[in-house]
Amino acid sequence: MTSWQDTFFSDFAAMSQFGATPGGGIDRQAATDADAEARRWFHQWLEAHHFQVEYDPIGNQFGLLEFYPGAPYVLCGSHLDSQPLAGKFDGSYGVLAAASAASLLGYQASMEALHPKYNLAVVNWFNEEGSRFSPSMMGSGVYCSKLSLDEAQASTDDRGTSVDAELTAHGFKGKFTFPTPISYAEIHVEQGRNLENLGKQIGLVTETWGARKFTVRVIGEQAHTGSTLIADRKDALFGAALVITEVRRLAERCQKELLQASVSHIKVLPNSPVTISRETTINVDLRSPSSEALDWAVLALEKILDNVEKEASVRVEKNLTHSWELSPYCAEGINLTQHIAEEMGISYAKVQTVAGHDSTNLKDLCPTVMLFVPSVEGISHNEREFTKPDDLLAGRDFLVEVLSTLVTDGLA
Amino acid sequence: MTSWQDTFFSDFAAMSQFGATPGGGIDRQAATDADAEARRWFHQWLEAHHFQVEYDPIGNQFGLLEFYPGAPYVLCGSHLDSQPLAGKFDGSYGVLAAASAASLLGYQASMEALHPKYNLAVVNWFNEEGSRFSPSMMGSGVYCSKLSLDEAQASTDDRGTSVDAELTAHGFKGKFTFPTPISYAEIHVEQGRNLENLGKQIGLVTETWGARKFTVRVIGEQAHTGSTLIADRKDALFGAALVITEVRRLAERCQKELLQASVSHIKVLPNSPVTISRETTINVDLRSPSSEALDWAVLALEKILDNVEKEASVRVEKNLTHSWELSPYCAEGINLTQHIAEEMGISYAKVQTVAGHDSTNLKDLCPTVMLFVPSVEGISHNEREFTKPDDLLAGRDFLVEVLSTLVTDGLA
Question: Which residues make up the binding site for Zn(2+) 2 (chains A, B) (predicted)?
């Protein structure tokens, strides 16, 4: 007989084929053909394991195990979409771990080895990554009413294709309304080095870092690169390059590891080899556990932009797109998971998350538990992303215990 | 009766409708629908004015006036394609001025008021701008054997569409071989401020600036923008931004107006809001009349790239794509046009060109005359590009005299 561990790895391998890249990762951006294939595979997996499958209007994919009609649900999941050329663990591991754990608990309940008080559901949130369609954490954002359904459906990719068109084309735009859960749990790869450095197998996430995210638009004037004198230039790409270099130096000027400052997206108009850019737009992403550090960075950014306007003879507009402070996960969840880890004798550490997750949205809707498994060298959003097999299994085992408590006793 | 001036402006207005933009310019990149419409319009114009229309395999569009079968041709023209959101004068003015002047000379010959020794042809060179399909000056480059036909036909745009596919689809891939001309003439807007500053109406182009053009590829490593520590980052976009800012400063460090240094094109992978770039490619465009200044700038660029490798923890590759020195137009052409200007009493100046033109290719094949009309404020590759109506007419009049001499006496 096949062990559950073998089944878990063969399911994970099957899932990892959708959008597989030669470099050993996946490229499965939201609502692409590869994402649709992964979703259809997961749909079939859920039905084969006795879940009822439903979709809401933003394409969130739910698998329901209804023990008591009308009872509240415990919900557990993550996301199957990926960044371009990304790792196969980010999001996908959490979806499969949730499904595997919930399936086991469903089986136990059917054998009367478990006596749940609540129903249990798993979820694959739509478009957590936000690389093809902005903003990120789209499915959970709409579900938690932080983002309007209309705005999300109208979001378009670089070619002008909308979320709504793609969800409709692939058959993932549903009419289901999943009720507010009694609690939510998510397990994810850490994407940082803390657990590895500490030698621990499970991370109990206590807080999510604060962030300020901006779109910065640099407005210059289109001109001939050959014949336009330097003094006459209003070069928007030069202006944006100054911002990019100075934003990076912000992080270096701040106390060590207190501030993450990044620019990773750029749009240049007209982006021609012989024409100076008339307009260049970039993102500026500032993250810190300290609100004071974030406020300092925003003030410093404003000074940078003032200087860039002068040095590059351009006009700069900045638009705040995301802003939140260090925000805790609920103490009851942390206490519960700490208790379970001690009971199980599994090594654990309390850690913060710098990356956003669907649980960042859910935790403001209902009591939420967020768990990490270690990432080798902290590598993520990269085909080389890796988590050791033992850690994957330990995380799934741990999630079984957590969900078992959540569906029976609930959070104290 | 309509004056030739009225006809010239109504033809120019008709031509400027193809790819017209709300900002008063045109967007008519090579082999787009707008470019194809302009070419069909010009085809009809040529036939209506008794030219025989032919296309070669790279889509160069020729209009022939054959006075003596087998005699060599004098050729005159420019290009109808444009940069994105560009002015309507760049290239297009030169094509219409050539056609208008040649048509008049053809009429004079038919009336025996002119006794040509050579045949006369006009040309609309394919893809001078190079914004959609690289490299620029493609049609004249293939015609002058500086670029292979296969390479040019295989060039693709951002969506993977090839030159060959577009030329075939629009019906502009022909089999004609235009013979080597006895001489070539081109008139173009200056795209700089020299004539305006000097208060002159015609520029006699004596030399084209030297240039070194590179593709610089910055290779980093894809990672999560949120959770990857600054010390662990190999951020290719940060590396490219350092290059962009330092290349600009090269021009500022050099003697005033001796060096043009630009970056205007960038490709970022994966270009996602939450993923650090694994690879960013930019162009670096250095131009100067001084070979020494160019050599100095290339050495300085190498130092910049070495420093960027260290500061951004990336690897940098640079690939030289274009290299030429200050290069003269033929003395006979300059002497001829100076003589004509003095005879006509039109104000003129000898000027250099910083921008490349199709004549830059032709001048290495046959004796070539290059003429400029003034650009208001030197603005070009911009919808606000403008040349005064009187200057447009004076340029066409001047071209009539030049071509008249070239087809009768030839270059002394």
Answer: 90, 129, 381
Contact B250, B259 (CB under 8 A): yes
Cβ–Cβ contact B209 with A under 8 A: yes
- Does domain A4-209+327-408 fall under CATH 3.40.630.10? My reply is yes
Using a CB-CB cut-off of 8 Å, the residues of chain B touching A319 are none
CATH number of B210-324: 3.30.70.360
Is domain A215-324 classified as CATH 3.40.710.10? no
Interface mutation target, options B28, B225, B242, B279, chain A, most CBs of A under 10 Å: B225
Interchain contact A257–B (C-beta under 8 A): yes
Q: Do B131 and A275 touch (CB under 8 A)?
A: yes
| Cβ(B353)–Cβ(B236) below 8 Å | no
Widest CA span of chain A, in angstroms?
A: 81
- Contact map slice: A 4-43 vs B, CB within 8 A: none
Whether pLDDT at A36 is above 70? yes
CB of A272 less than 8 A from some CB of B: yes
Residue A172 CB coordination number (10 Å):
23
Q: How confident is the model at residue A145 (pLDDT cuts 50, 70, 90)?
A: very high
List, in sequence order, every residue forming a beta bridge with B267; answer none if it has no partner.
B281
Q: Which two tokens stand for residue B333?
A: 């052409």
To 10 degrees, the CA torsion angle through B118, B124, B129, B133? -120
Average confidence (pLDDT) over A333-354: 97
Other CB atoms within a 10 A radius of the CB of residue B385 amount to 27
Give yes or no for residue A54 having a pLDDT over 70. yes
Give the span between the Cα atoms of B105 and A33, in whole angstroms: 61
Q: What's the CA gap between B70 and B74, in Å, rounded?
A: 13
Q: Give yes or no for A250 touching B (CB within 8 A).
A: no
Least CB-CB distance to B257: which of A131, A229, A262? Answer: A229
- Rounded to 5 degrees, φ, ψ at A334 are -65, -45
Query: What is the average per-residue pLDDT within A270-294?
Result: 96
Contact call for A235 and B227, based on CB within 8 A: no
The verdict on A258 touching B (C-beta cutoff 8 Å) is no
Would you say the CATH fold of B210-324 matches that of B4-209+327-408?
no
Closest by alpha carbon to A230, among B301, B299, B381, B249? B249
Per residue in B115-157, pLDDT (tens digit) is: 999 999 999 999 999 999 999 999 999 999 999 999 999 999 9
pLDDT at residue B227, rounded to an integer: 86
Give me the residue spans of the domains in chain B: 4-209+327-408, 210-324
Answer whether B276 sits within 8 Å of A262, measured CB to CB: yes
- Which residue among A242, A245, A272 sits closest to B264, beta carbon to beta carbon? A272
Chain A residue whose CA is closest to B131: A272
A170 is in an annotated binding site: no
- Does the distance separating the beta carbons of B222 and A85 come in below 8 Å? yes
Residue B1 has pLDDT above 60, yes or no: no
What is chain B's mean pLDDT, rounded? 96
Residues of chain B numbered 59-118 and touching chain A (CB < 8 Å): 83-86
CB B399 within 8 A of CB B76: yes
* CB contact A136 to B (< 8 Å): yes
Q: Which residue type does A44 have?
A: Q
Contact B386, B87 (CB under 8 A): yes
Compute the nearest-CA separation of B135 from chain A (Å). 9
